[in-house]
Each structure stands twice: as C-alpha cells, then as structure tokens.
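Q: A reviewer asked whether we had any structural model of the full assembly, not just the individual parts. We don't, so I'm hoping you can provide one. Inputs are below.
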Amino acid sequence: MSAVGVIFSNIHDENVPELSNMRTMGSIPYGGRYRLIDFALSNLVNSGVTTVGIITKNNYQSLMDHLGSGKDWDLARKTGGLVLLPPFGAKDNEGLYKNRLEALKSIIGFLTRRNEDYVILCDCDGVYRMDFSDIIDYHEAKQADITLVCHTEEIANSSKYTLIKSDASGRVTDIKLDASVNGVNKFYTNILVLNRLFLIRLIQDAVSHGYKSCRRDILQRNVKSLKIFAYDFEGYHATIDSFASYFRHNMELLNKSVRDELFGARDIYTKVRDSAPSKYGDECIVKNSLVSDGCIVEGCVENSILFRGVRVGKGAVIKNSILMQDTVVGDNAQLNCVITDKNVIIRNNRVLSGCEIQPYFLGKSTIV
Amino acid sequence: MQRKKDCVAMLLAGGQGSRLYALTNNIAKPAVPFGAKYRIIDFPLSNCINSGIDTVGVLTQYQPLLLNEYIGNGQPWDLDRNFGGVHVLSPYQKKSKSAWYEGTANAIYQNLNFIRMYNPDYVLILSGDHIYKMDYSKMLRAHIEKGADCTIAAIEVSLKEASRFGILNTNEDGSIYEFEEKPKQPKSTLASMGVYIFTAEKMYKYLEEDDNDPNSSKDFGKNVLPAMLAAGEKMFAYRFEGYWKDVGTISSLWEANMDLLGNKPAFDVSDPAWKIHSRNPLAPPEYLGENAVIKNSMVALGCEVCGIIENSVLSSNVVIEGGAVVKDSVIMSGTTVRKGAVVNYSIIDEDVDVGENAIVGEPKEEAKGIAVLGRNVTVGKGAKISSGAMIDKNISEREEV
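A: Here is a predicted structure for the entire assembly that you could use as a starting point for your response.
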C-alpha cells in the first residue's frame, strides 16, 4: 500500500485537560500500558505504512520520550520511518500553528518530498483497530476525492463532534460542525484519506484564500463540488472527548470482546520498559482487573486498571479505579473511582472516592 | 591506531542441556524460558551490559534457530553497536580442519579470530545456563589488581553438592593451588561458577597448546585450567556472594522459578539498579477474571486468568480458564489450561493445550517428581498425567500416563 501517515498529536488536548496539562493528547496513558498515539501508530504500521509524520505543537517532551527512534513500532528506518514534525518557525509565521490548516501548511515540505500516492490523516482521540488498506480500497473504488472515516454511536451530550450525513452510495451530503447532540449519530472520526498531491493543492488553495478551518473551509464548503465519501467503520471505536469518557472507555477494556477486538488479531505496539513480570502476594484478591507488568499486588483490586510498576499495599482496597505508572497505594488505603496520574503516592489508611461520572483525579506526583 | 576493547565476553551457549529432557528437544538450553518473561541467556547478557561489557560472542551449536532469532541484533540488551555488540558464532567451514565445537576450550579456540578483531586485554568466558546477577567489572578489577593470568569466579556450596562442581582449593590470598573437577571427596566447598577472566595473551597461548595436544578433551575445566596451574601461572579465585543457580536440571529450573516468588524473594528480578533486559512480549496487560483466585504468583503480560493459581509462575499469553487449578507450577507462554483441569507440581512448556478436566502431576507433597509437558503438546479431555512424567507427544482423551 502506498500511503504516508500523518498524526496530529496535539489537536484535541482540550478534551482531557486533567491529563494533557503536561503532555500531548497522543502521550496520554491508556489501557494499562499504552499511550493514545500507540493506537493510531500501530494501526498505520499494521496496515503496511512505513512512513509516519507526527505533528507536534507544545508539551511534546513526553511524546518524544515515548516514541524514541520509533524502533518499538518498527519505524526506525533508513527510508521513511518515524518523522517528528515539530512547529516550524519561518519568516512569515510565528512557529506555533493555531489550527489544523496552519499545521498542514508547515508540513508541505514533508509531503512534497514523499512519493506515496495517498495520505492518511489521523488524530489521537480515538482507540480502535482499523486496517487502513480497506479504506484506501474503498477510496479507490469510489473514485473519491476525500474519504472520511465515520462511526455511528451513542453520543452523550456533546458538541465536539462533526456529524455526517451520506446517501446510499456513501457520498457525503451534509456536514454539521460542533452541533450539540445527544443520541445515536454518525460522526467523523478525524481519520481521512486523500491523494497526496491533491492534499498539497488543497492546502495551497486554502492558504491563498486565508482559510482558517479545515473542516469548515475544506470539507463543509466543498460537500457539493468535491466527491467526499464516508467510510462506515463498524468495529469498536472509542472517542476520548472528556475526562468521563476517558474513564468509561478505559473500563470497557475489562470486557473480553473489546479486548479481543483491540488486541486480538494484530499487535498494538508501545514503548518497552523492561519491567519485571507482576507479582501477587499471599493475601491479595484480584477480580475483573487488568494489571500491567512490574506491579506488586498485596491488597484487593476490583474492576480496575493498574499501569506498569503500581504497588498495592496489604489490606488496601481498590475499586473502579485507574492507577497510572508507578503509583504507590499504602497499606489499608481505600480507593473508589479514582484516577491517579504517574508517580502518585497514597499513604497508609487514606480513603479516597469519586464517582463514575466524575472520577476523583490526582495529578502527576501528588502525595496524599 | 587500531580500535580496541578492554574486555570481550564469550558466552558458551552450545550445550544441549539433555537433563532438561523435553524442554530442550528443539531449543538450546540458554533459550529455555525462565521467570515468566525471560530466557536463561538474558541473565549473562544483562550482566554484561550492566557491567559495561559491550562486546559479546555467543557460541552456538545445538538447535540455534530460536536462540539466533531471540538475540537478533542485540537491541533489547543495548548490544547493537557499530564496533562491538553481540554476535552469534556458529561453527564454520575452514580451509582445513573444519569441525564442530568439541569442547568449551575448542569452541573459543575456533573463534580466536573474532576475539582478535577487538584486540582485547582481557577475555571473559561465560556459560549460558546460570541464573545470577553479577558485576563482572568488579571481578575484572580484582583480576587486574592481583596481576592474575586467570581469575575464576567461585561460590560457596554445601558439602553435599560440592562433588557436582569444579572445586577450587585456595591459599589465604585467594590464589589457587589445586583444581579438582567433580571430586568424590572435596577438600573445600568453593565451587567454580564457570565464569573465567583470562589475560588475553595467556589464553591464546594455552588454547594453542591445548589444541595441539591430541589427548586433551579440549575443555576449560578438565584441560586448560589444570595445564595453566601446572605451568605455574597466577590463578586466583574471585569469591562471589549472592544468588547463583545452575538451572541445568528440571528440579533446579523449577526451584529457581520458585525463588522469584514471595515478599522478599531469594532472587529479585525487579531491581531497578540491575535491570534484566529481555525481548518483551507484545501483549496487553494481564486480565484477572471475576472468579480468579491468585496467591503468591508471578504473571506476565497477556495472560487471562479465570481459575485458581497458587505458588506459580506464568509466562505471557497463558490462559487459565474458569475452574482450572494451577499449583506449584511453571507455565510457559501461549499455553492454555482448560476448564476444570488441575495442574500440580509441573513445568509446562510453550503452546501446550491442557484439555478440560485433565489432571497433570500430583500435589507436591505426594508427588514422585515434577511432571514435564514439552512444547506444542496437546493433552486430551480428562487425561491423567502422573507426577514425574516427561511428555513430548500428544496425549489423547482419558489416556493415563
């Protein structure tokens, strides 16, 4: 398959401010041992893409640390491979882009030097497993100008979605931006496929018109004049649009069917840490939970997700919680609906609780 | 000026490990899985990189395929280097005298050209069948300080075990005056660990001489070291204190796995100051189900546990279905233990399928020995495998062996 991938690592940072305060959306920890960008990146690699550009904006230290040379995704290559595309300061701009179009404009050089036929653009707000070659086949069969990957699902009271209407042939007939919705709707997953040279022309045209919004000025404006098609993705797709949805979708991984679909057929790659395997003590009780490597569990863990290197002391009770890397829970502490960021320490006998809609959050390196 | 390395390590990984029976039918002993996510060779390789030795030759001969693939370019151990790094060395054809590796000394002798490429001052000889964490740089420093020609790492063993090892009899300053290979009546309990440092030129000399000796069995312990001692070379013992275990037998492999368990394990693999590097499994976090019961165990990524596990070590992607019981056992990656099956005091190799209600082994207290199931074996529903059995063929439904 001849396509280059481009991932926007920062675009939805405001969705989960608690977690993206000090990092990009792409480097938000997810599912016990992953970062959100691992899903987009692994899907690209598993679809046969060997060149992936990653657009960054700010706070991208954690992202660079995570990605390294790209070897864990098999993207440390002589030809192509992982290409970090940090903000590009030049005479006629201030470096930091303000919207997707400006970001794309700053990578025209990267896009021009490639020789693949297609570009796959994706964001880091989705958790899914998708074979992008299916989408390119669809794109070719429909002779589309642009193919938007869409997903139909219940949306709970949000105005962050781009709603799509398409006709029987799949051609997009209407695009609604940021409409306030509650209910089952078809929306655009921020994944799109188009011809590389056509994308360059679109960007140049948008720049010369002074356009600001990719969705409004390129997609919505051209619904009639361009052949925009919707590809309906039927599989599991989690959109991380808020802190509550981050919590809910993480917890969905406790369902075997979701796990099998995400991790079953192809691997999801991530940075390797060489942690020891997890150890379970004599008095531990662990039920319906995901535990990553390097953990030492001596207490009770139920309906929870433990990231790498978490320690749970004796007599501690952890329910419905997500504990990120190297969190330490002291003896006899009790946690319910709590999300801890990395390196949080909870001392002995502390009792903390949130609720499912608003989990109690402890920021990086907090000591309670 | 020629580029050089101070010290080059040579890792003897050619052994068949016949005392591991079914576990080494198709793989070399150093490639045998250990401790839920490691293989035995991870320990000497991690020791090398953690000791600052970045040039390692791995000598293979028996079933090298999996070992070659596992080592690859050495990247998991940070041993992918422009100059140095890890290299797999198999026997090769020469203009004359092409041969398999005959003994440990001969294996090194056949690869002297590899060592000379790095022009080292010292050569470290390691074996690929021990589990331990050791800082070789301290041993090298002792070797240099004593001005030794050969330093042998040694550990105190019990008098009962001593006759299984090469025993070093030393003077007060640590210099060796006698070397006994597997003595019936050991004079001391200081055992050689099979870890040697040679001053390179001396080693070249004695390996040449050994090769010219038609009566030699071309083994370090039996021939080269005694010859050096007889010639009056300066040989010292370097005392190592800490955990060290030869995992060349089924029972010692089982014991070493159990030594990882507990609150204060006899052997700790999670020490951040001495990381054990390995090729990592690609798998999601392990899942423990609604009815899972887990006590004093080690579990690797990708496992799905719905049954009962006690005092056991599970490698990646092992599935323990509901109602199954696993006790005092070591289970390697990709194995499935189905509903109602009971596994006691066993070692089960990779990709084994233990059928519903099958019984493998007997409770540890009553068992005659450890039951072993080899790679890819399928055990049919309701089959029964007695304790101490070594199985490398499929077992059909309700069969009893």
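A: Points you may want to mention in the reply: Chain B has a mean pLDDT of 94. The longest strand of chain B covers residues 190-199.
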